[in-house]
Structure formats: C-alpha cells, structure tokens
Amino acid sequence: MPAVENVLVVGAGVAGTGVAILLAQAGVAVDLVEKTPGPTTAGSGITLQGNALRVLRQVGVWDGVRAEGYAFDSLGLRAPDPAGTLLAEIPDARTGGEDLPATVGMPRAELARILIERTAAAGVKIRFGETVTGLEQDRDGVEVTFADGSVSAYDLVIGADGIRSTVRRLVGVDLTVTPVGMGIWRAFGPRPDSVVRTDLYYGGPSFIAGYCPTGENSLYAYIVERAQDRSALSPEERLSTMKHLAQAYHGPWDDIRENLTDASTINYTRFESHVLPAPWNRGRAVLIGDAAHSCPPTLAQGAAMALEDAAVLADLLVTHERVDDVLWDAFTARRFERARTVVEASNQLAGWLLNHERGDVPGLMRTVSDLVTPAA
C-alpha cells in the first residue's frame, strides 16, 4: 500500500507532471495546480538526454516524444572560423539505455502539451491559474490554502514550482540562487538540412554558439554571452542583436542566421544556479526539480535531473508504507549527490568558459554520462 493516499503537486513542468502521472498510475489521488493560465505555448526548444527519455518512457509519453521530436546520437564540435569547420563528431552516450536514442530535441511547447495530456488521462485533477498561499502541517498531513481562498487537506505536498518556488518559501527555506555570469540568447525557427544534431562552437566573440534540431522542420539555436541587462531591448532589437552575434559563426549557422526573421521567437535569460542542502523535505512538504536544484544548461541535464527526481520520489512513495525518516533518507541517498554532481559539473564548464581556461570538456561530459547512465 502506498505511503500516501492523496497528494498535491504544485507546478506543471516536467518534474510536476512526471511525479503526478507516476503517482496517479499507482492509484494515488493527485491534484496538480499551476499558476499560469494554461499549458506552456511559448519558449524555444529543449534537449532531452537519454536518462530523461528513460523517465518519459516510464510515464507513458515516449511514443509522443519520439513522434514530435528529433533523435540523434552524436555531438559535433565546430570551429569559430570562416568555414565553421567540423573539428569532431563524437558518439554521444546512450544514458537511457541502448534501446533509446542518446538525445532528442523537441519544441518545449510540444513536450508540455504531451505531458499535460498524459497527466489528465492518468486521472490527475489539474487546475490552471491557481497556486498555494499557505501550508499548515502536522505529523499526519498538510492543510493547504489556495489563492482562491479554498482549503484542502493532503498527505503530502510536492513543490515542483521552479527556481522561484512558492512552496520553498512557505516551508521556510531561505535559499540564495546564485548568478552564474552568463546569459543565453535563444531562437526557434526552421531547420535547414545542414542541421542534423547538436553542434557546439566554443570561442569567438561569445562563449558558445550552438543549435539543436527539434523536429523535421524546426530547431532552436542559442548563443551564450557574458551576462548583461538586455531587458530594455525591443523585440526587433533582440532579433538584431542575436543576428549580429551570430555573424561570427558559419557552416550551418549561415543557414540558421538567414532564417532568423521573426522577433517573437527570440528570448534572453541569465543563468542561475543553486543546490538545496539535504534534506529536500520539510515534514510532509518536499521540493523537486528546479525548486531543489538548478544549473546552467551547459550539459543539458536540467530536464533529466527534474524527471529523475519525479521518478525516484514516486517510486519511494509507492513502495514505502509510511512517510517517515526512512523514506526521506532513501530519497536523499538516491538523489542528492547525483544532482549536486551534475550541478557542479555544469558550473565547472561554465567557469572554464568565463575564465578562458582550457578545461577537459570531453572528460567532464564523459564523467557525467557515466554517472547518469544507471537509473537513479
């Protein structure tokens, strides 16, 4: 018998929908609230490594992800020279197992749609435009007050509500999110035939220029620069700035740059990072995904770590009979060091770039791949 009968999940990203689906599949009654008015329709693309795909298959959405995304099994390294010379094509580790691709790129909005549809089909009750404003708990459960004034009781509250987590604040966790010192330009657009995998260009006037195919007819492209305040730029100025930065990169970037015409597809964000010290629970409220840890996307493991959190937490709640220290100690043992190592490695790569150090990038990637290949 599961340790919980009814659960509230706060946040409808990959961590929140993932854990909601897995618990509902096991017969747990799950409510999910999301403060935005509906499923994500904006954003560019997302890179899903094999260990993320492993969990997506577990929650029953692999067929949809495979159909909507673009799978590939290698990583290209290119020079920031006039030809965009391909320096190496490296076979990528199949961290989800040999029966899954190494990587799938897909539009963020499509992944959100697929997960929300699966969440609803699993019987989860979803409320958009809603969030929590108060949590009162004792040893047996949590009384939750919502923004609409309603109150409900749950055996457990799962905060999967992102880097600015409301649940984290409500349970009294004082945590500092640290700027990494980098900002990223992202664009979503058509995929030219020259783009068949992720290629990374290190160096030139920016730290990284890269791209990832997200479907037969789409990709997202990105350029990482030193962080600065870009908030005053108009959409047209954002487009002009990204095209200007892209002028330094060639090969497939020449095709991509030609297709950068829609200012609405350009966005800019600054990297931040944190790891919540263990334990990630406060009584019967627990934090997962970006609410517990975040890192720059230099190793493309953010979604995978969030999905692994969801899978491990659901497994423990279903296989244990009580919500107690034994359960939380097991959660910490399976998640904390693994997530912290990925965050530290992602920040190490960012640090090398910021300091213009020649670090062992392939070695770092291999270490992380070896870590995340066994299931969490």
Strand order across the largest sheet:
6-5-14-15-16-13-17-20
Overall mean pLDDT stands at: 96
What is the count of distinct domains?
A: 2
SSE arrangement, N to C: EHEEHHEEEEHEEEEEHEEEEHHEEEEHHH
Q: Over all CA atoms, what is the radius of gyration?
A: 21 Å
**How much helicity do the residues have?**
25-40%
Low-confidence stretches: none
Instruction: Specify the biggest β-sheet.
Output: 8 strands, mixed
Task: List the total number of helices.
Answer: 10
Instruction: Please state the overall shape, judged from the principal axes of the Cα atoms.
Output: globular
Number of strands: 20
Distance between the termini: 22 Å
The CATH topology of the largest domain turns out to be FAD/NAD(P)-binding domain
> What is the SS-derived class?
alpha+beta
Q: Quickly name the level 1 CATH class of the largest domain.
A: Alpha Beta
| CATH homology superfamily of the largest domain | FAD/NAD(P)-binding domain
Strand content: 25-35%
Write the CATH architecture name of the largest domain. 3-Layer(bba) Sandwich
